[in-house]
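User: Here's a structure from my thesis project, written as structure tokens. My advisor, Dr. K., wants to see whether a designed sequence matches the one we expressed. Can you design one independently, without my sequence as a hint?
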């Protein structure tokens, strides 16, 4: 009996501590997953680009590279979408060619897309919140203030 009780307690602890990622843990995430699926299903890269927060991103090079990545993925069927918590750093900060960059929205969660192709391609983006909507975050020079 003691062993059964111990195993039950262990199972409860492991289940609560290791919950599987879900497609939309809150209404903001569920709404964003729907917006992403709709934009992806449209087959229009510009609809996908509208899911990004562009404030503070002034160079056309960033937009070009984002667009090229989306062109590569837009024809792949979606297998799964899920959200993950961010680590303790909450996002990213980096330096490139002497300039420091940070997210242009305060990071909210990580958005992960698994595509249903043989190569098992997965894409991951950081989401930020602006006026009760989620957007894909971009990198902006540090002198650009974070939008919340």
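Assistant: Designed independently from the structure alone:
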């Amino acid at each position: 009996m003691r062993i059964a009780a111990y195993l039950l307690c262990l199972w409860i602890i492991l289940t609560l501590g290791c919950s599987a990622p879900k497609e939309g843990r809150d209404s903001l995430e569920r709404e964003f997953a729907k917006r992403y699926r709709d934009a992806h299903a449209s087959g229009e890269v510009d609809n996908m680009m509208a899911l990004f927060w562009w404030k503070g991103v002034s160079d056309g090079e960033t937009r070009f590279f984002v667009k090229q990545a989306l062109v590569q993925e837009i024809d792949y069927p979606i297998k799964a979408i899920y959200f993950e918590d961010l680590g303790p750093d909450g996002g990213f900060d980096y330096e490139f060619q002497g300039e420091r960059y940070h997210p242009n929205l305060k990071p909210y969660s990580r958005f992960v897309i698994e595509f249903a192709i043989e190569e098992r391609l997965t894409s991951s983006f950081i989401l930020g919140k602006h006026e009760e909507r989620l957007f894909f975050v971009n990198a902006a020079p540090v002198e650009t203030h974070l939008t919340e």
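When you compare it with your expressed construct, this may help: The first helix runs from residue 2 to 17.
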